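Following up on my earlier thread - several people asked me to post the actual chain instead of describing it. Fair enough. Here it is, all 134 residues.
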Amino acid sequence: MRLAMREAPQPRAGEKTMSSSTIIRVATAAIALCAVTGVAEAGAACGRASWYALHSRTASGERMKPDGLTAAHRTLPLGTRLKVTNKRNGKSVIVRVNDRGPFIKGRVLDLSRGAARQLGFFKAGHTSVCFARI
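Reply from S.P.:
Thanks for posting it. Predicted structure:
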């Protein structure tokens, strides 16, 4: 099987291009950043999480079950399953995104009371977590 090689498009007048050494440096920095932050798998992220327990309807239309294993996230599709790990104690739980939020700066997830209990931060109210799509 032969691969067709194309020439790189020529830059327009006044347009700057990156040298191959600059591209390699940028790629190396991106890989190093992923290694340092622990974001190795696609869709993984870390940040602060809190919990909430309401009896109203969620963004998905279902009634919230405070003792269920659900989460609110700003942008992930409703129905997405996440493995959430408490960075302080290593406990993990699998939750389903069924709501939008959190709406507090610096937080990446709002978890149900049941998920907070399993992760061991119910009394604290918030903790540092990492989560990944499964």
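The beta strands are 45-52, 70-72, 81-86, 92-99, 107-112, 126-133. That should answer part of your original question.
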